[in-house]
Amino acid sequence: MNATDQIRKKLGTLPHQPGIYLMRDRFGTVIYVGKARDLRKRVSQYFQPARRRGWDLKFKALVEAIHDFDVHVVRSDPEAVLLEGKLIKEFHPRYNVSFRDDKQFLMLKVNLNDPIPRFTLTRLKQDDGARYFGPFPNSSALRTTLALVRRRYHLRGCRPLTPTARDYRHCLYAHLRYCTAPCIGNVSSAEYRAQVRAACEFLEGQCAEMQEQLAAEMRAAAAAQEYERAARLRDLLSDLQSTTRKLSRFPRVPYRLPRALDPEKDLAELARVLGLPAPPPRIEGFDISNISGTFKVAALVSFRHGRPDRANYRRFQIKTVAGQDDFASVAEVVRRRYTRVLKGLSAGAPPAARPGGPPPAARAAPAAAALPDLILIDGGKGQLSAARAELEKLGLGHIPLIGLAKEFEEIYRAGRPAPLRLPPESGALKLLQRVRDESHRFANTYNAQLRLRKISESLLDEFPHIGQRRKAALLKKFGSVQRLRRASVEQIAEVPGFGGKTAAELKAFLAARPGGGV
């Protein structure tokens, strides 16, 4: 059964339900993720004649590349939005644009271990002992519902960790009777925690009584011809239902790098189109991950005989480049990589392997084996020129070097003014795309790890009245939040800018968040 017959057969089995569909190419790579209110109708549209194919070249290329598809049925459209965003961040499909940044959906957070708990909005779930609700696809509805919850259960919206009578003097929530003001002893700590727990039960979906009350008020307002009030109540009811609707939790989808159908054939074709004397047994690919000029990192992946050689993957933090400069970042990582390789060769051994790799004797190889047969840079002319200049300085200008630009999948070659375009079904192009996509995935994974490490340090940002200077002083003295957690109040008080009272408050703040920042 060919691919067309297989797709036609699968279309007939699709349900008329909301869900997510993943389009795959002939190597199994996810190239597009979409959502649908009706899976059968939506997915079928891709395989029917349409005028759009005539003028939308991107859509035409997508349809021509589809070799198979998968679907995942969900219960509602909000669940489809959440799952779509999750899968796009997981696979980074070539034909998707939305959700490809690192921004997450909003969640609601409350730490019941705090002296006076408060609800806050966050985009990242941490292991800090707090309770989290969400994520929520509609941030506007969430904010409206949070305001409603604070007013109904008389909860505070102020920022201090432990508000005092001094904070009460300027607290609008308390003076408007939105908050029961535990900071001045209007209610005991136990009574206030009971209010917070009731709000948690409400957010878990136990809100039928309030929904009925709002619906009754809406109908009464409409009957009295108070249409503006009825419309406000209708919108509030809709936001409440949207926020408290129970959603499914989706497990992480494991990443699998698609395998080539015939690697040797693809390598032979690649040698032919690039004019190489022989198929390149070892290919190294570079990619830069740089989000808004922060956490600039690079990744090197190695492919041997058309398959990933993960033992020789490498990661780099960009050290000498200020701001967002991909050209300079490419130059730095190429210079560092091959300077180290040449040092290893001059010492009579290839670069050291990772822990757990083969012993040095088993790694001994001829000098030429330590250098790649082809280098692939993710980018166009600029990135290619920066890499070529560094290779020539190192005396490695003889190594074939190419750049692969994402937009039109053009192959740039040194000394050739015009890029090379291969047909989408070309095995050589698919091989280069696998190298490029793997380096992109590896670089983004490293970038995400660094961001998570930074986020663990940002736990200190939640502590009131701490600025960047005092935070930097803490991390300089203790090295990490984990070591800070083990420090005594007296040791914290020795940090410039901290006194005994503030140190005790910080110690209590960290104690209320078990595991956070570790």
3D structure, described in words:
- The structure is a single chain.
- By secondary structure, the protein is of the alpha+beta class.
- It has 4 domains: 3-91, 3-Layer(aba) Sandwich (GIY-YIG endonuclease), CATH 3.40.1440; 130-244, no CATH class; 263-354 and 363-437, UvrC, RNAse H endonuclease domain (Nucleotidyltransferase, domain 5, 2-Layer Sandwich), CATH 3.30.420; 463-511, 5' to 3' exonuclease, C-terminal subdomain (DNA polymerase, domain 1, Orthogonal Bundle), CATH 1.10.150.20.
- It has helices at 3-11, 39-45, 52-55, 57-65, 77-91, 139-153, 165-168, 172-175, 189-203, 208-223, 227-244, 263-274, 326-346, 360-363, 381-393, 427-457, 468-478, 481-486, 489-493, 500-511; strands at residues 19-24, 30-36, 68-73, 106-110, 119-122, 131-136, 282-291, 294-304, 307-308, 314-317, 374-378, 401-405, 410-413, 420-421.
- Strand 8 and strand 9 form a beta hairpin.
- Mean pLDDT is 79; it is low at 352-369.
Which stretches are low in confidence, meaning pLDDT under 50 for 5 or more residues running?
A: 352-369
CATH homologous superfamily assignment of the largest domain = UvrC, RNAse H endonuclease domain
* Class by SSE composition: alpha+beta
DSSP strand (E) fraction?
5-15%
The description of the largest β-sheet is:
8 strands, mixed
Task: Report, as a whole number of angstroms, the end-to-end distance.
Answer: 53 Å
CATH C-level class of the largest domain is: Alpha Beta
Tell me the domain tally: 4
Shape: flat
Mean pLDDT: 79
Radius of gyration: 29 Å
CATH topology of the largest domain: Nucleotidyltransferase, domain 5
CATH architecture of the largest domain: 2-Layer Sandwich
State the share of residues found in helices, binned by percent: 40-55%
User: In DSSP terms, counting alpha (H) and pi (I) runs of 4 or more, how many helices?
Assistant: 20
Counted beta strands: 14
